[in-house]
């Protein structure tokens, strides 16, 4: 690859990355400006942002809107319900149940795919940090093993 081709590819990759950041910033500003969930999703799609990326950005901007954002996104793109739900649960794992319910209500025919996507996300989530812990368990008992050939049986007297 020539240096000129590399420079063009690097510039294109950088521009694509900046566009993604700009799109996320636009979604966040739409949320901050109080636009409806439907309008946030419509604006993101018009800007060329994937529905899943728009959902993740909107929830990152305001997690309390998770169910409304998911409902709007799934209603807009029901065939993408599983990916949308996965993005939402990844962005707000504590709201997995309400997000799943909202997605299933918006696209009942996608319920199995939604459940499977959520199960996959939850399975891959790290375990929550342990709270106050109990003292460690004592070590497991081990049987005493010693050669028996050196013992002399004791006869009862």
Shape: elongated
Main pleated-sheet profile:
none
Q: What share of the residues lie within helices?
A: 55-70%
Radius of gyration: 28 Å
Secondary-structure element string: HHHHHHH
Query: Distance between termini?
Result: 96 Å
- Secondary-structure class: mainly alpha
**Which regions are unreliable across 5 or more consecutive residues at pLDDT < 50?**
1-23
How many individual β-strands? 0
Beta-sheet strand percentage? under 5%
In the residues, how many domains can be counted?
A: 1
Mean pLDDT: 79
The count of helical stretches stands at 7
Question: Nutshell version of this structure?
Answer:
This protein is mainly α and 157 residues long. It has helices spanning 3-32, 37-46, 51-61, 66-76, 81-91, 96-106, 111-124.
How would you describe the overall organization of this protein?
With 157 residues, the chain is mostly helical. The protein has one domain (8-124). Helix content is 62%, strand content 0%. α1 packs antiparallel against α2 (37-46). It is elongated and about 100 Å long. The chain starts with a helix and ends in a 33-residue tail after the last helix.
């Amino acid at each position: 690859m020539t240096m000129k081709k590399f420079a063009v590819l690097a510039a294109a990759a950088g521009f694509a990355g900046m566009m993604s950041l700009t799109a996320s910033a636009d979604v966040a500003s739409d949320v901050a400006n109080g636009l409806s969930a439907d309008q946030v999703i419509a604006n993101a799609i018009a800007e060329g942002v994937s529905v899943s990326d728009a959902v993740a950005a909107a929830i990152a901007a305001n997690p309390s809107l998770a169910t409304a954002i998911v409902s709007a996104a799934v209603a807009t793109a029901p065939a993408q319900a599983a990916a949308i739900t996965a993005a939402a649960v990844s962005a707000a794992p504590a709201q997995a149940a309400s997000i799943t319910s909202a997605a299933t209500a918006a696209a009942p025919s996608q319920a199995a795919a939604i459940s499977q996507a959520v199960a996959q996300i939850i399975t891959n989530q790290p375990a929550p940090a342990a709270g106050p812990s109990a003292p460690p368990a004592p070590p497991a008992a081990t049987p005493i093993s010693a050669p028996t050939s050196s013992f002399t049986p004791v006869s009862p007297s």
